[in-house]
């Protein structure tokens, strides 16, 4: 059901809109968590390391899908808020065509560059073959990743956060079941993990796109809709490129950091792989809520209701802090218990690595969540320069400090210390940029 985010109490509107988004990302992360959990439990520590190693590379592809999602979502939100339904439909079709072209190019890149990328991050020999196998199968499923993301962006732009939640809930549970069948009973190893994800994402994508077209058909207009609009393409690209660059450079930074981590051996890789999955569950949840803030901001800009944006920022901060508090406490005090879900008979070093990673990062979830909410408003209002400055500051600091600290007596633990420093400085910048905008006056 489509929802106008420009009316009603901002806090109530955002909670109703964003809670299903939060639920959706929980289930989205279950895809990756299930892969790691089942690989670690039913195959072994090396398999977990291989899946985690490949995951950092797959984030490059996800970055492009995310950029297409945000470019489409922000533009469609603005047109929906302005009730310009003819151009809104044109924006959807234009985004789908653009995404299809980008997806094909990335599939070709993935097929040709998998081995060089794994070499670049110094993948250990004992996990190289499984990393390559997982990556090859993942690349084949890129169309599902792209078009599902576009569908999700369209639903969010129309104020509907419940439909994608339903799709993800079903497909994520199915993914866990198929994972177990392929790995435990069919003995397919890492390939079983990858093919299970491929199949379940494919079903989710097909269902989501079918509902998108039905939803668009229900919006009746008199004017003829342009299938491809260059002017709207420019607007989509203006949001999509910075969003893609943000995620791409974060992914590249993570790959560089992964290369440093790989130098400490498979047990540290396995501990980090489990820890980073848990951390990404939180960060991606905050990011998804911030994406909801972007849709809220864009719709209200389209309706010229600037006063609601300031109220939306306050409501967004309350929301992420409320959701972040229990997760921070869980990871800080119960990190080892969470990690052991991923590891079967782990080494002491693997457990220690994951625990230290979570204990260092989790107290700063309040900081990074504030940054992401401010970023969501900047992106939804089209202020991509400010958005990029804060994001790159965080990334550069984390990568540079990770390299520096890893060479000290802290060893691998030094790498984790780079995260809070980057988050804190970038949060200061994001909030400062947000306060410069007209809705503060």
Keywords:
441 residues, mainly alpha, 14 helices, globular
Helix content: over 70%
What's the helix-strand series?
A: HHHHHHHHHHHHHH
Q: Overall pLDDT, averaged? A: 84
What proportion of the residues form beta strands (DSSP E)? under 5%
The biggest beta sheet reads: none
SS field, number of helical segments: 14
Backbone CA Rg: 21 Å
Given the C-alpha coordinates, what overall shape results? globular
N- to C-terminal distance: 34 Å
Low-confidence stretches: none
Number of β-strand runs: 0
- The oligomeric state is single chain
Please identify the structural class as seen in this structure: mainly alpha
Describe this structure in words.
This protein has 441 residues and is an all-alpha fold. The chain is built from 14 helices and no strands. It has helices spanning 10-43, 45-81, 85-120, 125-140, 142-157, 162-185, 189-217, 230-262, 266-302, 307-339, 348-361, 365-380, 384-406, 412-435. The model has no long low-confidence stretch (mean pLDDT 84).
Q: Helices and strands in order, then pairings?
A:
Elements lengths: L9 H34 L1 H37 L3 H36 L4 H16 L1 H16 L4 H24 L3 H29 L12 H33 L3 H37 L4 H33 L8 H14 L3 H16 L3 H23 L5 H24 L6
Helix pairs in contact: 1-2, 1-6, 1-7, 1-9, 1-10, 2-3, 2-4, 2-5, 2-8, 2-9, 3-4, 3-5, 3-8, 4-7, 5-7, 6-7, 8-13, 9-10, 9-11, 9-12, 10-11, 10-12, 11-14, 12-14, 13-14
């Amino acid at each position: 059901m489509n929802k106008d985010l420009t009316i009603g109490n901002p806090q109530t509107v955002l909670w109703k809109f964003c809670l299903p988004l939060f639920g959706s990302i929980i289930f989205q992360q279950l895809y990756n968590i299930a892969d790691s959990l089942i690989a670690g439990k039913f195959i072994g520590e090396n398999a977990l390391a291989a899946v985690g190693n490949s995951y950092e590379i797959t984030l490059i592809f996800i970055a492009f899908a995310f950029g297409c999602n945000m470019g489409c979502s922000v533009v469609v939100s603005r047109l929906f808020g302005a009730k310009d339904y003819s151009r809104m439909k044109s924006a959807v079709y234009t985004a789908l065509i653009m995404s299809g072209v980008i997806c094909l190019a990335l599939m070709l890149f993935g097929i040709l560059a998998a081995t060089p990328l794994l070499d670049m991050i110094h993948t250990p020999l004992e996990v190289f073959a499984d990393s390559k196998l997982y990556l090859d199968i993942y690349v084949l499923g890129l169309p599902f990743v792209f078009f599902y993301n576009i569908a999700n962006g369209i639903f969010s732009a129309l104020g509907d956060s419940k439909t994608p939640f339903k799709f993800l809930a079903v497909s994520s549970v199915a993914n866990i079941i198929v994972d177990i069948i392929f790995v435990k009973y069919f003995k397919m190893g890492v390939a079983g993990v990858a093919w299970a994800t491929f199949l379940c994402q494919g079903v989710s994508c097909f269902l989501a796109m079918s509902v998108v077209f039905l939803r668009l058909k229900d919006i009746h207009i008199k004017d003829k809709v342009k299938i491809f609009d260059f002017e709207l393409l420019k607007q989509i690209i203006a949001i999509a490129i910075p969003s893609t660059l943000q995620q791409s450079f974060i992914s590249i930074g993570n790959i560089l950091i992964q290369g440093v981590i790989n130098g400490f051996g498979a047990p540290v890789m396995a501990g980090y792989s489990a820890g980073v999955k848990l951390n990404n569950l939180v960060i991606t949840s905050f990011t998804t809520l911030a994406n909801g803030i972007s849709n809220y901001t864009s719709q209200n800009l389209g309706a010229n209701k600037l006063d609601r944006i300031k109220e939306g920022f306050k409501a967004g901060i309350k929301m992420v802090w409320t959701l972040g508090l229990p997760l921070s406490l869980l990871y800080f005090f119960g990190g080892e218990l969470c990690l052991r879900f991923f590891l079967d008979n782990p080494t002491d070093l693997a457990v220690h690595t994951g625990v230290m990673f979570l204990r260092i990062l989790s107290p700063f979830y309040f900081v990074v969540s504030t940054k992401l909410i401010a970023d969501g408003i900047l992106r939804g209002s089209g202020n991509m320069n400010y958005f990029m400055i804060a994001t790159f500051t965080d990334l550069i600091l984390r990568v540079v400090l990770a390299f520096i600290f890893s060479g000290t007596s802290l060893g691998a633990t030094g790498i984790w210390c780079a995260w809070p420093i980057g988050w804190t400085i970038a949060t200061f910048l994001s909030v400062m940029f947000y306060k410069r905008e007209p809705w503060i006056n």
